[in-house]
């Protein structure tokens, strides 16, 4: 309050911006624009360099590379359909699990369900999850997650084996353990960004809802979540992007088997795992093929982010016209 | 008093962690190498000891994988390299200044398994284990496995094959051996640092030796191939394999040396023992090579490299049994010693 009073009595508020303010403004705008262009150039360079190195493989295998299902270095036959499938399948599963828990957590931590201090403790713990190295997640998956879900998986397979999702037994590494660990890995991203989005919702909107007689849950589900939906969607897109590119934990948990299967318990493979595991020993012929696969992964990630951004812009402009 | 003692201990540890001796540090010649990860524990012990005893040299070795080592070696970004798969004649031809390949140690690849009740001494015959890895034998109580293991009660459990997910020298050696033993393996997946494994829910992969070891330990009914040293370290059971002479052999330093003794070393010192003769030979063992340039940048570097080889052949071999590697037979040591003179 004191600050406002001081502002009111001083003459600064009504004074036009000084020359220095203009300059500083310009400088900052220029810097920000330069940074934005720099990022674009980096992405362009990445695409360019990987693209050039992939040219020999592209001209040899064409688009058949995307639909082939074998990876045989001895016979020089390469196809990455199982990897594309595995990348999308594991990421979507992780997004469903991690997204649900992340958004729930964001609501729980921002809507006064907990005393403020306790909420802060929880928030810090969730954000700490982001600091755990990927390899640690991988080993945790092998030693904790797989033994824990084995009995459930065996039971599901025995009772509901006719459903394609439970069609095989769990051999150890597989799609489900990979997706579960991946879900935990994207949880901090989804939770943190969703919390920011929910906190952006003006307090008076919630109060207005209460004023109209809405219950707490009606206010949360019908007023706050729709208002924050653009931000939450952004959080999910970020989480999905993170899941697509995750390497080491998946390499340890997904089973690295070139299979196309709907079953949650089948081993599969992902593009990032394929790249990470094959580069160190790759020979001259294999490097362009791996670069081709890397290009595909980069394009998938770019496409997901672009579609996500497009949906966000569309919905937010629609919301503006609604008003 | 106790506290003082503790503090001085701590101080001593601290001094050891950060040896501060600028005069010595400047004179040191730094040599770097990269390559195979399989002999890394042994090599890093060698280089650590050597660098400690010789104030004039500091040797670093990065375990990047055999393929990366060979690439670094061809591009001359290292002073030496190491590879489990040696080098192909094409690759050797690309090395400016000529290459000298020296087998410096050897190791065995074992087939480890995880069965309820930890039965020891599972015997796998020559016609059985290739078919397990081909996914043709799918249950532990299969009559073909049972017939060689009269004393063991094998459970009615599916077999989960665990293989390497990353391309590796271990897979290279293991698949070459399977190809030598089984025609259907030779015509199917074939041999290489990565091969096209049969597609099955019961064939899963894990990265690196420790990943495969961990997955075997966590999966009842699992079977997989790992380096002997890792199997000993992780205390997983190892199968006895039937050799060419028909005997079932336990993996170990003795049976490994018997295998290496059957190798005929040619002029370039690249020899494979894919299916060794001999009553006492363990079937899957291999040399692993260090790669040197014939003409090095400076005579000082060449001298240190020759010195390191000599150290590895004498003191270094004494370490190998303890660390799970096979000491080189005497005839190999003398052949390597002669060849090392080419490093100039």
UniProtKB/TrEMBL annotation, chain A:
Keywords carried by this UniProt record: Cell inner membrane, Cell membrane, Membrane, Phosphate transport, Transmembrane, Transmembrane helix, Transport
Entry keyword Cell membrane: yes
GO biological process, one term: phosphate ion transport
Residue span(s) of domain ABC transmembrane type-1: 84-308
Transmembrane portions of the chain: 31-52, 88-109, 121-149, 175-198, 219-240, 289-314
Subcellular location(s) of the protein: Cell inner membrane; Cell membrane
Gene Ontology MF: a single term: phosphate transmembrane transporter activity
Keyword Cell inner membrane attached: yes
GO cellular component, one term: plasma membrane
Major subcellular location class: membrane
Topology class, membrane: Multi-pass membrane protein
Source taxon at top rank: Bacteria
Record CDD domains: TM_PBP2
UniProt record similarity statement: Belongs to the binding-protein-dependent transport system permease family. CysTW subfamily.
PANTHER family noted in UniProt: PHOSPHATE TRANSPORT SYSTEM PERMEASE PROTEIN PST, PHOSPHATE TRANSPORT SYSTEM PERMEASE PROTEIN PSTC
Physiological role: Part of the binding-protein-dependent transport system for phosphate; probably responsible for the translocation of the substrate across the membrane.
Cited NCBIfam families: phosphate_pstC
Name of the protein: Phosphate transport system permease protein
Source organism per UniProt: Candidatus Methylospira mobilis
From TrEMBL, chain B:
InterPro entries associated with the record: ABC_phos-bd_PstS (IPR005673), PBP_domain (IPR024370), Phosphate-bind_PstS (IPR050962)
Signal peptide residues on this chain, from the entry's feature table: 1-25
A GO CC term assigned to this protein in UniProt: ATP-binding cassette (ABC) transporter complex
Gene Ontology biological process terms in this record: phosphate ion transmembrane transport
PBP domain sequence ranges: 23-311
Pfam assignment, any one: PBP_like_2
UniProt keyword Hydrolase, yes or no: no
Keywords (A to Z) from UniProt: Phosphate transport, Signal, Transport
Oligomeric form and interacting partners: The complex is composed of two ATP-binding proteins (PstB), two transmembrane proteins (PstC and PstA) and a solute-binding protein (PstS).
Function: Part of the ABC transporter complex PstSACB involved in phosphate import.
Listed name of the protein: Phosphate-binding protein PstS
